[in-house]
Amino acid sequence: MAISAEMVKQLRDQTGAGMMDCKAALTEANGNFEEATTILRKKGLASAAKKAGRAANEGLIGSRLSPDHAAGTLVEVNCESDFVARTDDFKQLIEDVLTEIDRAGDSATQAWLDNPDGVVKKRVAQTIGRLGENMAVPRFVRYAGRGYVGQYIHMGGKIGVQVEFAGVTPEIAARPEFATLVKEVAMQIASASPVYLSRDAVPADVLDKEKSIYRAQMEGSGKPANVIDKIVEGKLGAFYKQSPGGVLLEQEYIREPKQTVKDVIAAANTALGGSVAVTRFARLKVGETGV
């Protein structure tokens, strides 16, 4: 059958594929839109497979926050070049991936994300076919229903921070002092890259390893055991404060090193008349592994 320009445009609007690709698919499918869509998807997936081995170390961190701050999502979307990362097609891919995570809700897991037949992989394949670069969505972080969620995007989308607070009443949420606190804590995480929230959050095996290193450094020093114990504790204190790494609440505040982040939160609570506390956080940087 004859393939009209209107039919080609309709398929392009549905799939995002190029005009010539849409016309060819419709011709092959004899005007059947469902079959033509399947043909384009297969071609998109084939195109994605060809490019899968190419390094995709550029990209952006996408973010979405509910109006009431009860839920938030960060997602890393990678491509091969910063040029492609700045295109409208790539930015639309990020928005579409965020929408799929929202739709999946609690079902959005790493296994869901990595499913080769899942909605995210298929959506990524479409953009690979259109832009000609390898792309990937390696990870995301979603917080929902457990507290007040704040976000901070740094370096034009290369770093994204998400932080959750407990003890936030509607009255506190409306205060400018609280908005400042959220931003300052998020900026601290972006800049100082802490690994743990508090001392209690540091795994026992990590502490044991650090202690064994410090004790090994003292071998042959001739110092009494009780003195070595004090030195080890002092070094642990430095471990908690270190940046990057360490414990968020123990780190020196980036704006005033004489204060810790814990001090900043305490001062904010005094001003707010509340008991706000950080419950969890995530920091995503394009090209890094882990959360």
Task: Describe the model.
- It is built from twelve helices and eight strands.
- With 291 residues, it is of the alpha+beta class.
- It has three domains: 5-51, Orthogonal Bundle (Helicase, Ruva Protein, domain 3), CATH 1.10.8; 54-146 and 287-291, Elongation factor Ts, dimerisation domain (Tetrahydropterin Synthase, Chain A, 2-Layer Sandwich); 169-275, no CATH class.
- Strands 1-2-3 form a three-stranded antiparallel β-sheet. Strands 4-5-8 form a three-stranded antiparallel β-sheet, with helices on one face. Strands 6-7 form a two-stranded antiparallel ribbon.
- Strand 6 (252-253) and strand 7 form a beta hairpin.
- Helix 1 (5-15) packs across helix 2 (19-28).
- It is elongated, with a radius of gyration of 25 Å.
- The model has no long low-confidence stretch (mean pLDDT 93).
Question: Can you describe this structure in just a few lines?
Answer:
The protein is elongated. The protein is of the alpha+beta class and 291 residues long.
